[in-house]
UniProtKB/TrEMBL annotation:
Membrane topology summary: Multi-pass membrane protein
Localization (cell): Membrane
One family name in Pfam for this protein: Pyr4-TMTC
Protein name per UniProt: Uncharacterized protein
Keywords, ordered alphabetically: Membrane, Transmembrane, Transmembrane helix
Primary residence: membrane
InterPro entries: PaxB-like (IPR039020)
GO molecular function annotation: lyase activity
GO annotation, cellular component aspect: membrane
Length: 205
């Protein structure tokens, strides 16, 4: 069951990333909120590298795939993200902010490792940044005034991709922290799905 749920999560998140790349290139924007994208890229770069060094598992294969996909999503952010910001933010300021965001994200991930060790850090960091992402997706919807650069495919896949490891690490792993964070992710993810569904339905009326 744990392997099955790991694969479900891996496939669902892979769908999120592929759809984010497709939407970003098609709509000339980025489809994952900047702060969450930076944390995800740092997480996946660190743990994909560790997977290669310590031995490949099912989760390790997905970490590598996600890390490669994140490179393309980061490209869409760097290529199109400046247009999402106020006009007074120059290109050099945008690049400087992006570098700072990326460096901070790597520092945060490594601090989790230093504090909790490799096994716990991977889970705690993942669920905390996942909850942040859930909230930031709603903020993105509000900031853009609708679903531009977003899709129900991403929203539903993210929800499923988070729910599966919540069961694994929160339920089977008997972690109240992860179970609680995963439940909160579901609350925000379902709210986001409802927002996108309502916007889509309104647009077709």
């Amino acid at each position: 069951m744990i392997l099955f749920l790991t694969i479900v999560s891996g496939v669902a998140w892979t769908v999120v990333y592929v759809e984010a790349i497709r939407l970003g290139l098609r709509e000339r924007t980025y489809a994952i909120p900047a702060a969450a994208l930076a944390l995800n890229f740092a997480w996946e770069a660190i743990y994909a590298s560790r997977s290669v060094a310590t031995g490949i598992s099912a989760q390790g294969i997905f970490n590598i795939l996600w890390g490669l996909a994140d490179i393309a999503i980061v490209y869409t952010f760097l290529r199109f993200g400046r247009a999402e910001l106020p006009v007074w933010i120059t290109r050099p300021l945008f690049v400087g902010w992006a570098v700072l965001l990326g460096a901070t994200s790597f520092a945060v991930q490594l601090l989790f490792v230093a504090q909790f060790g490799w096994d716990d850090a991977t889970k705690y960091a993942a669920f905390l940044q996942n909850l942040l992402m859930s909230g930031l997706f709603i903020a993105m919807f509000v900031a853009r005034g609708g679903g531009r650069g977003q899709s129900l495919v991403i929203a539903v896949s993210k929800w499923i991709g988070t729910l599966a490891p919540t069961i694994v690490y929160g339920g089977f792993g008997n972690s109240a922290l992860i179970l609680g964070l995963g439940a909160l992710c579901s609350v925000f993810d379902l709210a986001y799905i409802a927002l996108l569904w309502r916007a889509r339905r309104t647009a077709t009326v």
